């Protein structure tokens, strides 16, 4: 008897000594990425989709704070590497999952076992960080429960928002590089002079003013999508909650390039953002940027079915899911945005400029979440009044307790703290679809070096007319939104058009980490950097992989156009990188004969130029020009003038000049005019000055047809872009 009793006593003592350590467990998952046909839009089945465990979205992974995660990722996609990044999760850099930056790629037919300790709780997600695989279906939710629940609910539901195209994402990016406005026809978002005038005289003034400042107008989304989804469906039943039941909705924006307005028609109580519990706030709608997460509490008021609707920011579509059973209570329909709003001060986005904020006492943070109080009621003896807002953004968020960074808590230590401040200007060229930071794409300027133990403060200044959700891997940062010591902790922050955001964090996660815009097409077009700690060294394997980082490659894209008319013909072809462009252009025009006669005298000219771009507006070029059966060497400068007039001046090897002007006039959604004028003072030939003016009809980007006029004749013809 003594031995069993003694054994029991020893077991009890060991369990007491180990305490919470005995509760830690290993949670293991297997995720298999495959290429499988799917039909998510209801319109067609596509063959390029990538599924995880045969589903889109991927399975939701659940853990408890303190668990050891083991996740085996298998790549069964033929002839294509893959990856998984654990978005918002604090972990060692080699487990972060960004191929060629901190984790090896998972080659076809191979697998990778990720192992890391769960140091936090909240709502997070995971997705591919390889090429454009996220858009093709590789994304899913992560739910981490706290060791001790502080918010009691009857039900929980994961709400994964996403955007879907029946067009391969690789083709989408190629189309955007041809023309940043490629999808305006598909989205029915073409701006025009008559459209503006029909709306109001002020709208017409705005349209002209936007062109004067060389901006095409409002731009909330680049891609024309075929469906918006919640948990992989356009319309679905989420939970059969009963009246009086309290539901926690864990909302994840896994969209590749879509912000969503999320609304229910009744106020939503927001309790968490990016996995970190915030002071509760009630909102009628939430603007959720790509990669952000928000947790919402909703108590079902009566025996009805309530719609949760996610509307794409440009209001080209939405997805719905329903909570409860019975008579349907729809969420409100979002109004279409004003296509003719001015774009110079971000007036249509509510003015989210934080540039003038004081940094003196509003510093906070740390990344290890273990010591943070996440309780929705922590530190309050009496419930505080709940703030109410119409549209919730990061501007209204407040932390539950001070987030001040450790080195800055004490005024004396704050004086000694090393602060690394860096301004990061976000901008791009929508026409050529180039997106960059401080005027350089990631292939030109890859690394930002920081030191362990310093306070790092980034100020994002958005000079473009698009939102940019900026995400930092491996860290949580404070968003200095005016909340002082209660500035919220996040891993992704929206930087609105012509707005400024300042973030700061304590550099205590040595490694090599991505910082990038979470618009997938912006990141892939250059808006990214790699943050490297100076005392961090890659291992030998990653040092070899890093040499092949696709972020350092400047990829080639092409554009072509053909025009055939009874009085004019033209062919154009471009090969483009970020700042480099080779253009071949040849045209032939009727110079004698009556209109619409094709058998009279024609004159042909052409050029082969290399262009080097230095900004959105300026380029220099050189090459060969052929005119009147004679070849000339030429050098020139191209510049986009106010009103979006493309101009160029060139001089050939004989010292003769050529001036060119070109502009498009969009009269209606389907009618436009392209006007080209060339002047060659002192040149020999039939056409020392010439022009071409068209009046064309187009209901899609690639094809147009109509009338073509030159200084000599009129004709009819077709245009085709590819």
Question: What do these coordinates show?
Answer:
With 722 residues, this protein is mainly β. The protein has a domain at 557-721: Beta Barrel (Porin). 10% of the residues lie in helices and 43% in strands. The protein has 9 helices and 42 strands. The strands form 6 sheets. A 12-stranded antiparallel β-barrel has the order 31-32-33-34-35-36-37-38-39-40-41-42. Strands 9, 10, 11, 12, 13, 14, 15, 16, 17, 18 and 19 form an 11-stranded mixed β-sheet that branches. A hairpin with a 2-residue loop joins β31 and β32. α5 packs antiparallel against α6 (201-212). The relative contact order is 0.10. The model is unreliable at 1-22, 345-367 and 370-381 (pLDDT under 50).
Notable features of this structure?
disordered N terminus, mainly beta, globular, 42 strands, Porin
Arithmetic mean of pLDDT: 90
User: pLDDT under 50 segments (min length 5)?
Assistant: 1-22, 345-367, 370-381
Write down the Rg: 29 Å
Strand content: 35-45%
Strand line-up in the sheet with most strands: 31-32-33-34-35-36-37-38-39-40-41-42
Number of strands: 42
Number of helical segments with 4 or more residues: 9
Please state the overall shape, judged from the principal axes of the Cα atoms.
globular
**Biggest β-sheet, characterized?**
12 strands, antiparallel, barrel
CATH topology of the domain at 557-721: Porin
> In terms of structural class, how would the helical and strand content be classed?
mainly beta
For the record, the CATH class of the domain at 557-721 is: Mainly Beta
Terminal-residue CA separation: 88 Å
């Amino acid at each position: 008897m003594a031995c069993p009793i003694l054994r029991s006593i020893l077991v009890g003592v060991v369990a007491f000594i180990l305490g919470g350590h005995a509760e830690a467990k290993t949670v293991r998952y297997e995720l298999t990425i495959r290429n499988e046909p799917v039909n998510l839009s209801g319109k067609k089945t596509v063959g390029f989709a990538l599924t995880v465990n045969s589903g889109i979205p991927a399975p939701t992974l659940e853990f408890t704070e303190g668990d050891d995660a083991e996740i085996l990722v298998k790549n069964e996609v033929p002839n294509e590497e893959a990856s998984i990044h654990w978005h918002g999760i604090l972990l060692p850099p080699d487990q972060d999952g960004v191929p060629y930056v901190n984790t090896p790629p998972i080659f076809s037919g191979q697998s990778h076992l990720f192992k890391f300790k769960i140091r936090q709780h909240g709502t997070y997600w995971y997705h591919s960080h390889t090429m454009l695989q996220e858009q093709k279906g590789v994304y899913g939710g992560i739910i981490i429960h706290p060791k001790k629940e502080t918010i009691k609910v009857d039900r929980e539901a994961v709400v994964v928002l996403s955007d879907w195209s029946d067009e391969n994402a690789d083709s989408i990016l190629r189309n955007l590089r041809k023309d940043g406005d490629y999808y305006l026809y598909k989205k029915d978002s073409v701006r025009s002079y008559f459209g503006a005038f029909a709306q109001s005289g002020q709208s017409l003034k705005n349209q002209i003013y936007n062109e004067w400042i060389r901006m095409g107008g409002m731009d909330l989304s680049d891609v024309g999508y075929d469906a918006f989804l919640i948990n992989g469906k356009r319309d679905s039943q989420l939970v059969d909650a009963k009246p009086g039941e309290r539901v926690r909705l864990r909302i994840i924006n896994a969209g590749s390039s879509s912000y969503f307005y999320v609304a229910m028609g009744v106020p939503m109580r927001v309790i968490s953002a990016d996995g970190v519990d915030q002071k509760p706030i009630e909102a009628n709608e939430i603007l959720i940027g790509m990669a952000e997460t928000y947790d919402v509490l909703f108590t079902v008021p009566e025996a009805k079915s309530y719609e949760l609707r996610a509307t794409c920011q440009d209001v080209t579509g939405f997805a719905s899911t329903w909570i409860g059973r019975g008579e349907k209570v729809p969420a409100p329909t979002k109004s279409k945005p004003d296509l003719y709003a001015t774009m110079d001060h971000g007036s249509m986005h509510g003015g989210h400029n934080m540039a003038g904020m004081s940094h003196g006492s509003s510093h906070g943070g740390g990344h290890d979440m273990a010591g943070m109080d996440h309780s929705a009621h922590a530190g309050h003896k009496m419930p505080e009044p709940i703030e109410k807002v119409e549209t919730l953004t990061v501007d209204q968020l407040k932390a539950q307790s001070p987030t001040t960074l450790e080195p800055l808590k004490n005024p004396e230590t704050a004086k000694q703290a090393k602060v690394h401040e860096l301004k990061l200007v976000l901008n791009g060229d929508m026409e050529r679809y180039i997106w960059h930071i401080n005027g350089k794409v990631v292939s030109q300027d890859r690394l930002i070096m920081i030191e362990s133990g310093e306070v790092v403060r980034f100020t994002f200044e958005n000079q473009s007319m698009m939102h940019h959700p900026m995400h930092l891997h491996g860290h949580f940062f404070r968003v200095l939104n005016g909340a002082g010591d209660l500035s919220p902790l996040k891993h992704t922050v929206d930087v609105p058009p012509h707005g400024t955001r300042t973030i700061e964090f304590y550099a205590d996660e040595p490694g090599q980490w991505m910082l990038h815009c979470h618009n997938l097409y912006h990141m892939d077009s250059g808006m990214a950097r790699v943050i490297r700690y100076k005392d961090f060294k890659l291992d030998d394997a990653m040092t070899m992989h890093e040499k092949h980082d696709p972020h350092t490659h400047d990829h080639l894209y092409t554009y072509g156009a053909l025009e055939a008319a009874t009085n004019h013909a033209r062919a154009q072809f471009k090969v483009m990188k970020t700042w480099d462009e080779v253009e071949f252009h040849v045209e032939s025009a009727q110079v004698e004969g009556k209109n619409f006669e094709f058998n009279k005298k024609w004159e042909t000219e052409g050029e082969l130029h290399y262009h080097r771009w230095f900004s959105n507006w300026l380029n220099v070029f050189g090459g060969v020009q052929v005119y009147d059966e004679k070849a000339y060497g030429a050098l020139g400068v191209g510049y986009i003038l106010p009103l979006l007039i493309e101009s160029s001046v060139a001089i050939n090897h004989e010292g003769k000049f050529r001036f060119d002007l070109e502009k498009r006039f969009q009269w209606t959604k389907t009618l436009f005019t392209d006007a080209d004028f060339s002047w060659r003072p002192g040149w020999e030939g039939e056409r020392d000055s010439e022009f071409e003016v068209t009046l064309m009809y187009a209901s899609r980007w690639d094809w147009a047809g109509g009338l073509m006029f030159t200084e000599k004749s009129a004709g009819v013809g077709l245009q085709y872009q590819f």
